[in-house]
Amino acid sequence: MQIISAPNAPAAVGPYSQAVRTGNLLFCSGQIPIDPTTGKIEATDVEGQAKQVIANIKAVLAGAGLTIQNVVKSTMFLQDMADFPKVNPIYEAGYEGHKPARSTIQVAKLPLGSLVEIEVIAEFAS
Fold it and tell me: Which family does it belong to (predicted)?
């Protein structure tokens, strides 16, 4: 098992790793919209938060030498499922035409009051 720590992604806010590689798989912890330069959630709307989350995912993947094209499974958590039509186009643009398997779940609350969180599993070329 290899721990991934990407310098351009937000630091973990708890006792976990940004990502862990095991074999050809990379399991990325859920990313919330923390701006890595300030360490805070700057965007107040779900669209801005979704854009930051995608940027954070890309930074974690880059820290492991991967891109969004390596993602095989994505799980999106929304505080309000009514935000899905706002977030979905941002997700689609951020994934640059790539369409991994995905689940979307409404939750009661997310860390630090964020409106959206996304976790991914990516695969290294064998």
Answer: Belongs to the RutC family.
